[in-house]
Each structure stands twice: as C-alpha cells, then as structure tokens.
User: Fold this.
Amino acid sequence: MSQIDSITPTFQFRIPVRWGDLDAYNHVNNANYLRYLEEARVQWLRSFIRDWDAVAAAPVMAAVQLNYRVPIGWPVQVRVSQFIEKLGNTSVTVGHRIESEDGCVLHADGHVVLVWIDRASGQPVPLPESLRAAISPQ
Assistant:
C-alpha cells in the first residue's frame, strides 16, 4: 500500500442543506453527514468510471471514520472535499472534510476505506486502472 504525500483535495462538491436534513435540535442530523459524503464520493467516482452500472467490479465501503467538529445549521451550503490518503492493490482510503462553503468552518473530517469487489463473486479485485490514473501523483 502506498502513502500519497499530498492531501490536496482531488474533488470538491457543494451540497445545499435541506430543511429535512435537520433534527429536533435544529442542526443537521449526524446520519446526513454520511449521506453528504456518499453523494460527493459517487459524483467523484462517476467522473472517471463512465459506465457505472455496466462495470463488473464496484467499490464497497469497508470502514468509515467521521469526526464531528461543529454542527451544521440551516440554511447553508456545505463543501465536501475528498482526497486520497492511501492507495492499495484492492482498496483506497479516501480522506474527507465537510466545511462551510467558504472553507472557514470545519464541520467534520475523517476517512473511508473503499474496497473494489467483483459484483458476481463478492471477492476483492484490483483497483480499476481508470481510478489509478485519475488519482496517482503526476
């Protein structure tokens, strides 16, 4: 597994906070943080895996770490930044940050581990070359 030196975001995605994302305490419910990360991650993956539904292998989330820093209120838009922390043979660790739109407030940070599996067998397979090409340092 190789360690990527740079933590420069490879993808940023803006998400408007919806009224329905709030809980009884009038801030975004913690489960919605994971939905924001998922939406940004899917958009990021779609940017280099064109036929998302047709490929024989797909990523599954093997682990997640999410550190809640500052509650998200409403109405705002948040910025989700994702960057590669580690690149393995069958897995990739993607760091993430959820920040205010201007980047001044860190709402949450952490990482996910994605493992590529064969859709038919459920067994791990090597990362797609399109992924390696998109995220490898130039």
Q: What stands out?
A: The chain is about 15% helix and 40% strand.
